[in-house]
Each structure stands twice: as structure tokens, then as C-alpha cells.
What we know:
By secondary structure, the protein is α/β, with parallel strands linked by helices. The chain is built from 5 helices and 6 strands. Strands 1, 2, 3, 4, 5 and 6 form a 6-stranded parallel sheet that branches.
Amino acid sequence: MTGAKTLVAYLTRSGNTRVIAETLHRQLGADLFEIRPARPYPADYEQHVAQAKQERDSGFEPPLAAEVDNIAKYDEIFLGFPIWGETTPPPIRSFLKSHDLSGKTLRPFITHGGYGVGEAPSVLARHGAAAHIERAFVLEADQERRTLNQVRDWLGRVHA
Length: 160
């Protein structure tokens, strides 16, 4: 895309998606934007999961801490996020709803903890219908969940 302006926008919880986003930023010379909710999620993994599940089930789309300045200047957007509760995280729905992506190429990159992309493709299609959505790059990145389970197993043996 000659003369195209590229944005890498991403949401991360554990840092896996950030690693991909920063790599794209460096390799492409693209602008980088971290999608963050106005009210941060709990740092505790289980509290975070419970809140995200409640938001997913209610259809809540949280306000964002910031929006991309002049999204119209971008032709191509790499959109990165982890799968939460077998779907797209609520802040990603908020991002898609609050930015006009008409005519833009949307290139999703998705991390997940072993359960696949779930409903994410259909959520992207519904919320980003004005964009041309490319096939997602998908990467399993389940280290956090695996670590938590291993520590619990160990504690169960030690304190049995």
C-alpha cells in the first residue's frame, strides 16, 4: 500500500498481545495505540475474569481511557487482543463502536489460552462491518493460565 498510514491498536492483559503489537510497530514503522478501559480491570486474574464474564454476559461496552486521534488518517489497522470468555473483550467492542473504520483494512491478531478464537470473528464482523476485515493471525499464548494451574496443583499436594 503505497502512501498508506498504518496503526497498530491492541488490548493486553498479561503482555502477550503487547509483544506482538510492539513487534508490528517496529517492523512496519506503524503508529502504536494501547486500548485501555477508562476504569482498569482488577490486577487479580480471577477477579479480572469474573468482571469480564459479567460484562460479556450483559453486553456492556466500557468507556475507553482514550480514543485514537484522527483515525481517518489510517488506511490499515492491525487490531490485537486476547480472547476473554471465548469471545472478543468488551473494550475491543467499545473501540470498534467508537471509531469509524469505513473503508479501512482491519488485520486482527488474536491471542488465546487454548480455547481458540470463539465468537471473535462474528463480533468483529458485526462491530467492524464498515471495514474490510482480513483473516486473523491467531496465536495460542496460555502461559498465565498454565502457571496458575501448576501452582494450584503444587499447593494442593503440599497442603493436602
